[in-house]
Amino acid sequence: TQLFDRIAAAAKNYPKPADVKFGYGTAGFRTLGKRLPSVIFSVGLLAVLRSQRFHGKAIGVMVTASHNPEADNGVKLVDPAGEMLEQSWEAYATTLANCASPAELVEAYKQLAQQLHINIGAPASVVYAADTRPSSPELIKALEAALAAFGDHVKTNNIGVTTTPILHYVVKATNDTTGEYGEPTIEGYQKKTAAAFKTLIVSTSPGTTDLTEQGNRGPLKPLPVDCANGVGALSLADFAKHIGDLLPFKPLNTQLNKEGVLNYQCGADYVKTKQQLPPSVAESGLLNHPDNRGASFDGDADRLIYYYLKGGKSFRLLDGDKIAVLAALFIGDLVTRAKLTDKIQVGVVQTAYANGSSTKFIKSRNIPVTCTATGVKHLHHAALNYDIGVYFEANGHGTVLFSDDTIATLKKTEPESPDQDRAIKHLIALSELINQAVGDALSDMLLVEVVLAHRGWSAEEWDAGYEDLPNRLVKVEVPDRHIFHTTDAERKLTSPVGLQARIDEAVLKVEQGRSFVRPSGTEDCVRVYAEAATSSAVDSAHLRAELESY
Ligand code: 16G
Ligand code: ZN
């Protein structure tokens, strides 16, 4: 009861704004930063419960609004293995966040603990971090106020200002009982990632200068990286110190203390939705050489988009689909060279937004493809069904998961040739380079660089595999998006009745047509996607679908 009094007293400083209904959506809570203190306070309570549920394992809390405007902020919980919060708990988060008074909050918290049979006096551990938004320090204070109400049996670890994927890494590493995953610190992440990258780029065996197929290419060409004026700029600068000139970076959009610049006219989301270079990147002139490639992070560095100028002129996007194809084919080749195709199956997980050409291309290479609903948790879950699961959303969020059995197989296989030996070592190093918890712009970028270096490819050669179908994505504000229900991984509508038939009809009229409508999980709108063999066809298909969705 003392605990309840302390929670109620602390909660008084974080009153819930009266006019809002909060919802824990696809990416946690997200809205204007100044509306969030009460929400963050309630998330602190839930994080403790969640940790107690797992006998005191560490739970993560990340304060960020990713690619959203600077005035927004958000919060999401990270489960012990470094994954997104289990879906069944999202409703609990929503319940606590909408309590109108401290008394109501304490009551809801008490009931929840009872319902879940959780001993509220048990030990707990919470790891937290924030991105660079101006509202983040205030929100972290609200979180700390909630955690402080518990006293000593709740261990807290503030890792400071860092990227979303690094927080996920630290949570996973904190809970790793084998001690093999890596040190549970930001520095531990940097060291682990740098070591794996070096293994993949430079030889560690005496007598050879590298481990690539085509001989030593020396240091890689400088890589311009648009950091969206976000926290990725910090992690990148930090990482660069660990690898010397092995891969020289040209960081762009790295202003962390200037108001109004976060995600503004830059970053992965800007590039993907506008299908053009950020003006700052264009002006830098760094992409003018046809051999050059550039990369953009989003505001919390969990999304990555590549691009280049074909012939030094025309913009070409290398999005999540292109990255998935690059990674899956490379890893597939390594598995073949490791002579493990009978034991290790590589598969790709996409969403309905994946360009039809990418899906077709992957299947043509005999790699299985699964389609899931939008949102990282769905892709992540499906990727676990493969021995090596490559998952990417077209928007650049994704990673590659290696199952425990796969790692064990790799470690116990006795190689019979130097090439097989090399392939096995490379697969193990890739599993260490690639963030196993969540999509990670920095580590995904290093993955891309490794593949390009090993293949000896420029961006244009990477791009040459398949040609994206022309496509459009628009949002439509409808009176009530909740009447839109989908099935088949969001590719078909079941309601409003009749609408799907009309979409099907429109799509049939155009070559290679495909279109779907789904309610957004993050905004009050529905999204309409369409693709077709030609640009003019896609316009007519999308227009019809859009009109019909009203
Ligand atoms: C969230 C998801 C992202 C998804 C997007 C779709 C996470 C961490 N993020 O940002 O994966 O692409 O929502 O938004 O799951 P929408 O539902 O508004 O289209
Ligand atoms: Zn993000």
UniProtKB/TrEMBL annotation:
The pathway is: Nucleotide-sugar biosynthesis; UDP-N-acetyl-alpha-D-glucosamine biosynthesis; N-acetyl-alpha-D-glucosamine 1-phosphate from alpha-D-glucosamine 6-phosphate (route I): step 2/2
Query: Domain Alpha-D-phosphohexomutase C-terminal, which positions?
Result: 473-539
Instruction: Give the residues annotated as coiled coil.
Output: none
Where would I find the Phosphoacetylglucosamine mutase AMG1 domain in this sequence?
A: 224-304, 319-457
**What's an example Gene Ontology biological process for this entry?**
carbohydrate metabolic process
| GO MF annotation list | magnesium ion binding; phosphoacetylglucosamine mutase activity
Name the reaction it catalyses.
Answer: N-acetyl-alpha-D-glucosamine 1-phosphate = N-acetyl-D-glucosamine 6-phosphate
What keyword terms does UniProt attach to this protein?
A: Isomerase, Magnesium, Metal-binding, Phosphoprotein
Q: Where is the Alpha-D-phosphohexomutase alpha/beta/alpha domain?
A: 57-88, 112-175
Give the source's domain of life in one word: Eukaryota
Q: What is this protein called?
A: phosphoacetylglucosamine mutase
What organism is recorded for this protein? Vanrija pseudolonga
